[in-house]
């Protein structure tokens, strides 16, 4: 496998990263997961735009245009003859003796490489169970940060409970997002999802769902909703680059509506599959 390490393509076993890279000690960096369908990037521009946002917010000085990142990623896909899956990309603040302040004169470290992604066809068809969990993460969830301990712990709690995702809430009145997904509810034909602010990651798939909803003449609102609204919704679904759209049919021990994937989630999923290219 070829890895893009800064500006070079190297074999995976030759990809040397310093033990004091700040990604390692501090999770001091940002990342993206970008989907590849049939050898082509899906929504690459949007991912690069969000990457720039994360870099700026984290004050990591990396110019993606100067490094011709889009071209390099294209080359990475070609060199690996990669057809279907994802590209994982991270940029850390670079390697420096361990100390909290931003190091001076340190170049960021970029790595990008292909990762397998299997289409969650079964979950999409039958829907999934989720658990509700307190959102104990930090308050800058808008930055796609490498610090994922809170997300990882939430996801594992879900799996330990026989569920596939944890839906997070700050308090009873405020559901935010999933451990690695955005959350949508539907009541009386109106789709609602959390506003894009510091409490959630503004998912690229989330934004794409806004586009699809418009095409399909569906009403979609960015509004905070409560745990009660979530539980009483007609439909619930989650979205992400790797999940696309997945209906939620059970929350803890409660069924969502009749416990089957709802028509609007299905409609969006169909539209997703048609528009993908
Ligand atoms: N996760 N919210 C969180 C906390 C996420 O980690 C993700 C993505 C999303 C959805 O964003 P997008 O639609 O841009 O993928 C929302 C990625 C896929 C991951 O960490 O694997």
Automatic annotation (TrEMBL):
Question: What is the catalytic activity of this protein?
Answer: D-alanine + 2-oxoglutarate = D-glutamate + pyruvate
Looking at the keywords, is Magnesium present? no
- Give any GO molecular function from the UniProt entry: D-alanine-2-oxoglutarate aminotransferase activity
E.C. code:
2.6.1.21
Q: Which cofactor names does the annotation list?
A: pyridoxal 5'-phosphate
Source organism's superkingdom?
Bacteria
Q: Which UniProt keywords apply?
A: Aminotransferase, Pyridoxal phosphate, Transferase
Give the main EC class. Answer: transferase
InterPro entries reported for this sequence: Aminotrans_IV, Aminotrans_IV_CS, Aminotransferase-like, BCAT-like_C, BCAT-like_N, Class-IV_PLP-Dep_Aminotrnsfr, D_amino_transT
Q: Which NCBIfam families match?
A: D_amino_aminoT
Q: What does this gene product do?
A: Acts on the D-isomers of alanine, leucine, aspartate, glutamate, aminobutyrate, norvaline and asparagine. The enzyme transfers an amino group from a substrate D-amino acid to the pyridoxal phosphate cofactor to form pyridoxamine and an alpha-keto acid in the first half-reaction.
On subunit structure and binding partners, the annotation says: Homodimer.
Q: Which family does it belong to?
A: Belongs to the class-IV pyridoxal-phosphate-dependent aminotransferase family.
**What name does the UniProt record give this protein?**
D-alanine aminotransferase
Please give the organism: Piscibacillus salipiscarius
Q: Output the lineage of the source organism.
A: Bacteria, Bacillati, Bacillota, Bacilli, Bacillales
């Amino acid at each position: 496998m070829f890895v893009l390490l800064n500006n070079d393509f190297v074999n995976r076993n030759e990809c040397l990263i310093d033990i004091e890279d700040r990604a390692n000690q501090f999770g001091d960096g940002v990342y993206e997961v970008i989907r590849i369908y049939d050898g082509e990037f899906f929504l690459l521009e949007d991912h690069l735009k969000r990457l720039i946002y994360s870099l700026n917010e984290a004050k990591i000085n990396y110019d993606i245009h100067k490094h011709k990142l889009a071209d390099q990623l294209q080359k990475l896909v070609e060199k690996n003859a990669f057809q279907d899956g994802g590209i994982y990309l991270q940029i850390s603040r670079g390697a420096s003796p361990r100390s909290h302040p931003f190091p001076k004169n340190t170049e960021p470290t970029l790595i990008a490489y292909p990762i397998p992604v299997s289409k969650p066809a079964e979950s999409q068809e039958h829907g999934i169970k989720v658990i509700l969990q307190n959102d104990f993460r930090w308050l800058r969830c808008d930055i796609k940060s490498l610090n994922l301990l809170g997300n990882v712990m939430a996801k594992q709690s879900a799996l330990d409970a026989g569920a596939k995702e944890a839906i997070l809430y700050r308090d009873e009145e405020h559901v935010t997002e999933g451990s690695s997904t955005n959350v949508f509810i539907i009541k009386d034909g109106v789709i609602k999802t959390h506003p894009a602010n510091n409490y959630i990651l503004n998912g690229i798939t989330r934004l794409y769902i806004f586009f699809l909803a418009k095409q399909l003449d569906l009403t979609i609102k960015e509004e905070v909703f409560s745990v009660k609204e979530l539980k009483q919704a007609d439909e619930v679904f989650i979205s992400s680059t790797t999940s696309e759209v997945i209906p939620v049919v059970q929350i803890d021990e409660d069924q969502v509506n009749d416990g089957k994937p709802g028509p609007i989630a299905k409609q969006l999923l169909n539209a997703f599959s048609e528009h993908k290219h």
